[in-house]
Specification:
Layout: H1 9-12, H2 15-18, H3 31-51, H4 56-73, H5 80-94, H6 98-111, E1 121-124, E2 129-132, H7 133-136, H8 145-148, H9 159-190, H10 199-209, H11 213-233, H12 235-238, E3 250-252, H13 254-257, E4 267-269, H14 272-280, H15 283-304, H16 307-314, H17 318-323, E5 330-331, E6 336-337, H18 348-376, H19 379-390, H20 404-425, H21 431-456, H22 465-473, H23 491-504, H24 508-536, H25 545-564, H26 571-580, H27 583-602, H28 610-618
Antiparallel strand pairs: 1-2, 3-4, 5-6
Helix pairs in contact: 3-4, 3-5, 3-24, 3-25, 4-5, 5-10, 5-23, 5-24, 6-9, 6-24, 9-19, 9-20, 9-21, 9-23, 10-11, 10-23, 15-28, 18-21, 18-27, 18-28, 20-21, 21-23
Length: 624
Amino acid sequence: MPEQVPTTVADNEPPELTGKLESGLTARTWPVILYGALILMPANIYLLLVAGQNLLGPISFIALILWVEAARLSRRPLTTAEAFVVYAVSAVAAGQMLFYLYAIHPAYFRVCDIANSEIFSYFDEKLNRIVTFGEAAPTWWAPPREVVEQRSFLHHAWLVPILVGTASWIFHMLADLSMGIIGRELFIKVEKLPFPFAHPPADACKALTRGDPGPKRTFTVCGLIGTVWGLVVYFPIALGKKIVNYPIPWIDFNRGLHNELRGASFGIATDILAFTGGFIIPFRVVVSMLIGALAVQFVGNAWAVGGLDDFLTRIGLGSVVQAMPWLDGVNTATHRQYFERYVQGMGVKQMVPNQLFVWMPVFIGAMVAAGLLHIFAQPRELVRTFKGLAATGRGARSERTVAIGPLLGIFVASIVGCVVLFRILIPEFPWIIIFPFALFWSLLFSLIDIRAIGTTGFRVDPPYVREGLILAIRPETIGVWFAPWPIALGSSSWVQDFKTAELVGCTPRSLIVAKLVAYPVGMAANLLFISIYWAIAPIPSAAYPYADVILPVWANQLCIWISASMENISPATQAMLDQLFNLQWMFGTFAIFAGVYVVGRLLKRIQLSLIGLAVGVVMPIPFA
């Protein structure tokens, strides 16, 4: 008999502990791409059109459990790396909504009553007549009205809009992927950030593929609790009824609170997922998020409407108010309250979008400070980071991705491609402004976003930046509002997946290849099923209730922004722009964050997380 080689403890250890990574893309896992695209995609699209929800979270676990159990029945259980690829790629294949965004939205705008009303129109000097925004939308964005009314993509007029949308998506995907690999080296390999929400999917894959009954029992119990919770609370609402009078997604205290402190916003989340996140994120970060949210949305909003002034006077601190006249919350430029859009009794849901017009410069200043202070205040860490970047592409074969030079080249080339496409579509827009802005903003806020995901698990993406830049430049035509924006800010999801891959012992290369295969398959399926649903009934229509509500709102908002960019804007619009990009508030916020950072370095016991503060400032207060 041949001599048997004795097994060692290392042979039985999981790959992530031994440092040996395994490929998760095998002959047994790639079919999940077809499963996600052809089986789960139709359900995901329909739920989006009817209820405004997506199944990406459940889809991942449905595919994971199905594949794990099917492999177990075949007597060849999946490895943990294979299980993770199933988890990650099923959602990619089923979640591609490119043609819903780049075809259905433009088609609706072309024919909708809102965009074709006299309210949203202007005098076109070339045509020498009044033109509505719906008529003026470029044909590279939406085909002519008579083509849209056919409700079919089988017309040559759809070719250019689909190619423009696809080209823009490819450039953004390449920029996100290259920055994601760079972010992996910076924030996973060098800084070793925790990425709190990368751990649950890794633990689920381990629990389902390994023999340890403890994690599997925990996974099963938690899954049952979540299922019962969803059936009792959410499923009846989808049918238009309630079993229990349960507030979703939060308990709103604003109506009563405004009787005591006008403008303050406060609520408590009721979604079970909001609380599970709190157990994953470090306590210091949770406290920082709460402080940031209270500072802006509770105290700040009360100050901006004049409620803080009234409250202090009512409790006998009128002398403080007199000594500090700025407590009245009045904008000295307009002689009105900063929060002009406030209405007594406004709920949290209404406060969140309206408070952006007050606190936008604070959001930007906070996120820039949180992203840069930690990096540049520690030069040794910065040197270590660049050394780690220089080593990208070297090392063990399973760890290799691409060297830093080609990565940066791909990133810059992708942004250049986005700008060139933008320039072709909008030749009159000044490229000398858009190119450096696109490159700088994509690089800076990708790094900030990745750090936020790595520290708190939540993204930061400053809103209304595109709108503010367009309004500030005053474009000659309205076509710029329809052009694909050349800013790439999607790299954080790649980095989080890389972290999960590391936790389960999956090679990053196999994850990248699996996603790159899933993308085109998912997009083809999206085009097919969107075509079918559109052929069945107009989108929007009574057959698709959520789309029937949200698409008119979207079209109305777009028309309002276009109107604001026209010549001879009102003083009110100019005042809004001045506040959106208030440099004094931006630099002031940066200075406050710098002070918090210095105090935290000196007094370790009360050190706050800067990125936690920044996320709390932006996040709706019930979730902070």
